[in-house]
Amino acid sequence: MFIEDIPMRVPWLLLLTLISSTAAAEVLKNLSYGPDKKQSLDVYIPEGAHNAPVIFMVHGGGWRYGDKNGEGIVRRKVARWLPLGWIFVSANYRLVPNADPLVQAEDVARALAFSQSQAASWGGDPGKFVVMGHSSGGHLVSLLAVQPSLAFKLGAKPWLATVSLDSAAFDVVQIMRSATHPGLFDRAFGTDEALWIAASPSQQLSSESTPILAVCSTRRGDQPCIQAHDFAVKAGSKQVRVEVLEQDLSHSAVNNRLGLPGGYTDAVEAFITSLDATLQFTSQPQR
């Protein structure tokens, strides 16, 4: 049975078992990369993994909620990419109010460094990581992408690319100065303008920034895609590669539909392979 044929009503714990039996040789749960309970990650390893590339995923949730086990975070991505030979990592991090977005970005960097250090033992290639995040997770991975030194000082090594799934938070300063911004930004970023600047990918762009694919929802009004395109223009002025992929999908669907066969998944995979021709998505999952 192919995972996409399983009814949505199947309990998630059972679904994990089905994923494990059909696509993964091993699932490593709740590996600790720090002392806090939230500093943990899960690893999904395909059968026969050897020098496998790795997708490192960071969940969203408005910087305050969310979990690495979320069905939309894991299900379709694992079902798509494990049969194609990829390892999939899903990471947690500390949340507001216990950690502001800068601390959260440090947690993500530590999780990435841990995963790279362990990749060979999982059958993975530490030099072939693609970092991905949705919503607030997209903001955090974008912040590390524009300032990879933040990750390097915590032990991470260079990664190939970053895929930001409907972040809509590339310019935090602009958002916070808008009178109509959602309250979730106040809870995450408060009133400290220095934090707004330090946590704003657009403000922190530099020539060291790594390539980014910014996926944006066209169903959320103009703002997410305007932010993404403005960010791409600014990145281009610094000779940094940022591509924008607009999708006629809801905010949640940008995340949970990635991995389904079709143009959206194909476009994300094409961006990844354009950065390293050895990374191919040629074999199709078996039904």
- β-strand amount: 15-25%
What fold name stands as the CATH topology? Rossmann fold
Number of domains: 1
**CATH class category label:** Alpha Beta
Q: Counting H and I runs of at least 4 residues, what is the number of helices?
A: 12
Sheet with most strands: strand arrangement: 1-2-4-3-5-6-7-8
Unreliable segments of 5+ consecutive residues: 1-22
Cα Rg: 18 Å
Helix content: 40-55%
Structural class: alpha/beta
Q: Report how far the terminal alpha carbons are from each other.
A: 6 Å
What is the average per-residue confidence, as pLDDT, rounded to a whole number? 91
CATH architecture: 3-Layer(aba) Sandwich
Number of strands: 8
Identify the CATH homologous superfamily.
Alpha/Beta hydrolase fold, catalytic domain
Secondary-structure element order, N to C: HEEEHEHEHHEHHHHEHEHH
For the largest beta-sheet, the strand count, sense and barrel status come to: 8 strands, mixed
C-alpha geometry: globular
How is the topology of this model organized?
Elements: H1 12-22, E1 24-32, E2 40-46, E3 52-58, H2 71-81, E4 87-91, H3 101-122, E5 124-134, H4 136-146, H5 148-152, E6 161-165, H6 172-177, H7 183-189, H8 193-198, H9 201-204, E7 212-217, H10 223-237, E8 242-247, H11 251-256, H12 263-275
Parallel strand pairs: 3-4, 3-5, 5-6, 6-7, 7-8
Antiparallel strand pairs: 1-2, 2-4
Could you explain the architecture of this structure?
The chain is α/β, with parallel strands linked by helices. Helix content is 41%, strand content 20%. The chain is built from twelve helices and eight strands. The protein has an eight-stranded mixed beta sheet with strand order 1-2-4-3-5-6-7-8, with helices on both faces. The protein starts with 11 loop residues before the first helix and ends in a 12-residue tail after the last helix. The model is unreliable at 1-22 (pLDDT under 50).
